[in-house]
């Protein structure tokens, strides 16, 4: 497999799939440009080799052409960060894109309009009537698959080499994230630096484990984390299940959880997971106490209670000090750490303490030589909020993609390039 460091882009045109799906305010100002910055090393390497770049990305979830989701809103910022006057094609597969890509000179950059303006990018039919028959649905699916091939081929025709640097969409088998790779031979498709780093970090926690390995799974619902938890049970030494999920486990074990969040239809599942952990010799670490509140609000009256003795009218919105100490002890001894999900409602200032303490314990373990990977939505927001991102080994940019990788799934965007 080719690597970006070994590839000489001189005189070559590279189609680089990035994830520039950045948040914009109502005046189209970028409120967080992390994703653009994350792709800069790849773009700069190609340009400094003497290559040219065609950037493809999506922005939001448009259902067709929509000004609100146009990448023109972020063009100036990309130019500024790259230090190059980036050109723009108003249609990713129109005549303009073709002419401009053909004319592209070494050192030049062309940004294509939002790839998802075309249903072909995702390969799913759009505009089907709600009452469409099965036949109509299947005809529409067939039609979109056929036009997707032409769409993909057109994108591929702009470039000599395909670079995927969009880990955030690696779990999608879309035209520009996976299918396009088929139009390039094995020596002309490769991961960008960001993608390389993400793949390495995931491999490290899944296949190159220094023990003890501890996973901290937080968040609100067991149902959304079940596959990850099951996959991790076969790998970890310690599994900390925390956040809102705690109370489903507590109730399943016969505890009183007051008004705490709970999935009543997952009580049996929780009991099964406890049993499975036991069978597999995994130390399942659950909370013993909670910071409780008399309403779901930052300004609620608060108290601390044993996790299985929460009075009616109160709910657990974070872990308590005894639990913090138990987690810290486990994390201190860990050599590989995966953190996904907060210990409580960290969006409320008064319930951030537990998540912050976990973050600090992860940082301390990292200083002590552990490899720590933080990723999947809210835990990234946590480490950023607490200013701890620099103290962990790796903060993943992929939400759904990271979670699917941890579930043990093969990601189409990765497979398309390295073959597995
Ligand atoms: P998830 O999206 O499943 O990773 O869950 C993250 C969300 O879980 C965050 O918005 C937290 O506010 C929420 N959460 C964590 N702990 C609790 C809790 N004890 N009660 C209610 N929500 C919680």
Structure description:
With 420 residues, this protein is of the alpha/beta class. It has two domains: 13-198, Rossmann fold, CATH 3.40.50.1260; 209-406, 3-Layer(aba) Sandwich (Rossmann fold), CATH 3.40.50.1260. 37% of the residues lie in helices and 16% in strands. The chain is built from 14 helices and 17 strands. It has a six-stranded parallel sheet, sandwiched between helices. Strand 3 (87-89), helix 3 and strand 4 form a beta-alpha-beta unit. It binds adenosine monophosphate.
How many β-strands, per DSSP?
17
Let me know the average pLDDT: 95
Approximately what portion of the residues adopt beta-strand conformation? Answer: 15-25%
Q: Which molecules are bound in this entry?
A: adenosine monophosphate
Tally the structural domains: 2
Biggest sheet, in brief? 6 strands, parallel
Oligomer: single chain
> Strands across the major sheet, in which order?
3-4-2-1-5-6
Keywords:
2 domains, alpha/beta, Rossmann fold, six-stranded parallel beta sheet, 17 strands, binds adenosine monophosphate
């Amino acid at each position: 497999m080719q690597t970006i460091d070994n590839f000489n882009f001189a005189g070559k045109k590279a189609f680089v799939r990035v994830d520039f799906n950045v948040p914009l305010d109502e005046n189209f100002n970028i409120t967080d440009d992390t994703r653009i910055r994350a792709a800069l090393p790849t773009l700069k390497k190609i340009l400094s080799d003497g290559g040219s770049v065609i950037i493809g990305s999506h922005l939001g979830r448009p259902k067709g052409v929509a000004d609100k989701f146009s990448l023109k809103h972020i063009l100036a910022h990309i130019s500024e960060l790259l230090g190059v006057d980036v050109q723009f094609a108003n249609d990713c597969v129109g005549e303009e894109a073709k002419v401009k890509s053909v004319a592209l000179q070494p050192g030049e950059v062309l940004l294509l309009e939002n790839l998802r303006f075309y249903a072909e990018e995702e390969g799913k039919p759009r505009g089907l009537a709600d009452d469409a028959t099965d036949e109509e649905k299947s005809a529409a699916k067939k039609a979109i698959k056929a036009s997707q091939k032409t769409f993909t081929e057109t994108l591929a025709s702009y470039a000599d080499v395909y670079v995927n640097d969009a880990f955030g969409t690696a779990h999608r088998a879309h035209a520009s994230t996976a299918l396009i790779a088929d139009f390039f031979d094995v020596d002309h498709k490769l991961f960008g630096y960001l993608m390389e780093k993400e793949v390495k970090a995931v491999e490290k926690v899944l296949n190159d484990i220094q023990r003890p390995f501890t996973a901290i799974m937080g968040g609100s619902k067991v149902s959304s984390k079940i596959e990850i938890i099951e996959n991790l049970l076969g790998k970890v030494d310690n599994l900390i299940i925390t956040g809102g999920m705690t109370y489903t486990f507590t109730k399943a074990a016969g505890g009183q959880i007051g008004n705490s969040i709970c999935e009543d239809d997952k009580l049996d599942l929780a009991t099964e997971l406890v049993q499975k952990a036991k069978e597999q010799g995994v130390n399942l670490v659950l909370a013993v106490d909670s910071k409780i509140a008399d309403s779901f609000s930052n300004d609620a009256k608060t108290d601390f209670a044993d996790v299985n003795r929460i009075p009616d009218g109160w709910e657990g919105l974070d872990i308590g000090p005894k639990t913090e100490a138990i987690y810290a002890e486990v994390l201190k001894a860990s050599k590989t750490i995966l953190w996904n999900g907060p210990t409580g409602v960290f969006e409320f200032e008064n319930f951030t303490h537990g998540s912050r303490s976990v973050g600090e314990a992860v940082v301390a373990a990292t200083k002590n030589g552990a490899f720590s990977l933080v990723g999947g939505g809210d835990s990234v927001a946590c480490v950023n909020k607490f200013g701890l991102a620099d103290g962990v080994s790796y903060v993943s940019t992929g939400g759904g993609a990271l979670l699917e990788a941890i579930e043990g799934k093969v990601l189409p965007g990765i497979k398309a390039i390295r073959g597995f």
